[in-house]
Design brief:
This protein has 70 residues and is an all-beta fold. 0% of the residues lie in helices and 39% in strands.
Length: 70
């Protein structure tokens, strides 16, 4: 599978990514701020989604169009 960030850089399991836009999390009052680093990502079965642990909020699925590789 070929997973890429918003700039076209390939993403692999275990990479760190940075959020490039403020995001609201569905079903929660949590807002992810621009510049937040998500470490040790996991790839999902979909090319446009990854899983990552954000702070102490648990695992969140994020779209790759809002991420850039660090």
């Amino acid at each position: 599978m070929n997973v890429k960030d918003s700039n076209g850089n390939p993403l692999n399991a275990g990479d760190s990514v940075q959020i490039i836009k403020d995001l609201k999390v569905k079903g929660s009052s949590l807002n992810l701020k621009r510049g937040t680093i998500v470490k040790n990502i996991r790839l999902t079965s979909k090319e446009d989604e990854i899983e990552g642990k954000v702070d102490k909020n648990g695992v969140i699925v994020l779209k790759t169009c809002f991420l850039k590789k660090v």
